[in-house]
Design goal:
By secondary structure, the protein is mainly beta. The chain is about 5% helix and about 40% strand.
Length: about 220
Amino acid sequence: MGTNVKGILGEKLGMTQVWDDANRVVPVTVVKAGPCVVTQVRTPEVDGYEAVQIAFGAIDPRKVSKPQAGHFEKAGVTPRRHLVEIRTDDAAGYTLGQEISAELFEAGQAVDVVGTTKGKGFAGVMKRHGFHGLKASHGVQRKHRSPGSIGGCATPGRVFKGMKMAGRMGGVRQTTQSLKVAGVDTERGLLLIKGAVPGPKGGIVFVRTAVKEFQA
């Protein structure tokens, strides 16, 4: 990842479409980015590394623990619901209580978006892993969507770790890399990001500087 990393927490509002300069329809995800506040600045002298911690989302102060309340009070901000730390070499340029908004990014910039995927509940191997299932012809028992063999009987006599089987699907952290910022609405604090990002409508996402160089 680059030395100067920028990032912001936001809420996924949904998807729509816009037109680019060539009059082509571009599908975009609308993210309500921020406003976030800086709650901590880590320095090599104190913490051994450089980073900045930002917070997002209002929360009832009664639902915040005393250590957390003291942490926010030290930063001079009201309690927030979500916290994230960004490792960056320009952490010294941030100050406690500083507000970060959608103006952090600009159109055409490449970003990575981190979110939590939609939870699908308990799913079989066909839906969860894309198995083809058993044959649909004569002679096959009524278990066409089953996984088939999951290991040998005598050798090895056990199921290997990591075997693709049925289980709970979704609800995991996922990063979509090298997405292009199609537009920025600074007045309403919106980021228009080309393509889809993880999570449902109303889900919390973290938008940061892209790790890899953007490929058009």
